[in-house]
Amino acid sequence: MSESEHHDRKHGHPGHGHAAHGPAAHAPPSDAAAAYSRAREAARPDPGRRIVHVDLEARETDWEFMPGVTTRVWGFNGQVPGPTLEARVGDVVEVCLTNRLSEPTLIHWHGLRVPAPMDGTDIVQHPVEPGGTFTYRFRLPDAGTLWYHSHVNETVQLERGLYGALIVRGDDEPVLDGEQVLVLDDVKLDRSGQAAKFGGLVQWHDGREGDVRLVNGRSEPTLTIAAGQIERWRIVNASSARYVRLSIGGAPFQILGTDGGLIEAPVPATDVLLAPSDRVELAVGPFEEGEELAVEALAYSRSTIKRRKTERFATLRVGPARPSSAVIPERLRSITPLAAPSTPATRTVEFGIKLSLRSGIDFVVNKELHHQDKPVRVGELQVWDVVNSTLMDHPFHLHGFFFQVLSVNGKPPAWLSWEDVVNLPPRSTTRIAWMPDDRPGRWMYHCHILEHHAAGMMAHFDVVRGDTEVGEGSSVSPAGHRHD
Ligand code: C2O
Ligand code: CU
User: Fold this and answer.
1) In this model, does residue 33 exceed pLDDT 90?
2) Ligand 1, closest atom to CA 121?
3) How far does the centroid of ligand 2 lie from the alpha carbon of residue 199, in Å?
4) I need a surface site. Which of 119, 145, 216, 269 has the fewest CB within 10 A?
5) Can you tell me the distance from the alpha carbon of 220 to that of 218, in angstroms, rounded to the nearest whole number?
């Protein structure tokens, strides 16, 4: 691929001239710098906790997804994924980002309840120019398996490797025999082993999937576990578009947690669906020595043009037995429901498509590209009906706040959990509840199929304090009726 090709920032979404993608839709507010300084100063560790300092340098590097095949990638600190960051609840993380790429970048903290100026998107800060630096500094309020990734020219920057895991540990975590962090991804390489050319109808419609399946930056690696032991696996789906219905050789495992940390009680399963950007925590094992299991994505139809069969991500080999002291408590946590399943919705958000002269189909929210949604007030319970009116799945992601799923097509979910992404099946209504705590500013939600997000399937909204006047501006008109 030539330099000019991979620096052409429109190639991620062919056929789309994104008028609405300009500075008007994506620019930080005028008081952004002051809000950032305040948030930076206010980030203090809890008593007895510490400040975890990390330097992350985004740069081009050579990487072997497959032994013997060198691919030019973009990674943090020369690796794909970037380093796994680890800290404890109540710590402050201070990340100094240096951009050594040839184009702007920034880091979004996916799933973290940070102040708006630290969210790492181009609606709260100016992207970091080549050669520039930016410091993110925030307190970690929640335990869980989170992740970080670029939020600029995402279709290219994530595909090329600008993402990593962030593990936050709490005080009362179950104690198992070991832990593995598995970051799943897929990449599309050309015959010379470089990132394949971007574009084409299938990629634009389905999202970009690749035939090289990665665990922690390596193609179909071999993982190991000791016979007799039970490990905690923290799994992140960092793919641009691929849905992973994860199976570990069909063996039973227990689901311990999801996006927002532990669930209330372990749930036994033999497969679990991870939409793009989803996380799960599993208790895996015990197995017998010599067993070999396929860690694979089972066939899952999300109504795309290209269908996928069962495909392998890794092989798990069971080594010699070691003693186990794993204890999986029957109760992991208690989660207070935010609202009864029948609570009426305060807002409807519709993920849809619209015929467009320019591109054939537009992926929209409330009938608009880059929708401006109404503000929400701090402390006012949000109950949203998130409607998918299309015939394919979309993963809905809310920045900065965890929500609870109240129902899917009127039916309560199998368990209560905190989520920042939920898959929206075709022609469905998912009712979610969330509480805007006191973190005013600009936030967003979007489809986490990166090509859909880039094409406009996203919305911005303000979180405002109770005493803020909400004027007649564009942000207060009823959703979806502005341009009719
Ligand atoms: Cu991982 Cu805007 O998202
Ligand atoms: Cu989508």
Assistant:
1) yes
2) 2
3) 16
4) 269
5) 6
Distance 444 CA to ligand 1 centre (A): 9
Q: If pLDDT is split at 50, 70 and 90, which confidence band does 466 have?
A: confident
Q: Whose CA is nearest to atom 3 of ligand 1?
A: 110
Where residue 41 falls (left for φ over 0; alpha for ψ -120 to 50; beta otherwise) is alpha
Burial of 378 (0-12, 13-18, 19+ CB in 10 A): middle
CATH 2.60.40.420 domain span(s) along the chain: 31-169, 178-319, 347-476
Side-chain half-sphere exposure of 16, counting CA atoms within 13 A: 30
**CB of 88 closer than 6 A to ligand 1?**
no
Q: How far away, in angstroms, is 125 Cα from ligand 1 center?
A: 15
CATH of domain 31-169: 2.60.40.420
pLDDT of residue 478 exceeding 50, the answer is no
Say what the pLDDT of residue 469 is: 73
Residue type, 163: Y
Tell me the per-residue pLDDT of 48-94, one tens digit each, with 9 for 90 and over: 999 999 999 999 999 999 999 999 999 999 999 999 999 999 999 99
What is the end-to-end Cα distance of the chain in Å, rounded? 42
User: May I ask the CATH class of domain 347-476?
Assistant: mainly beta
Nearest listed ligand to the Cα of residue 162 = 1
Q: For domain 178-319, give the CATH number.
A: 2.60.40.420
Residue identified by tokens 């949203």 is 384
**Which pLDDT does position 471 carry in this prediction?**
53
> Ligand 1 pocket, 460 CB below 6 A?
no
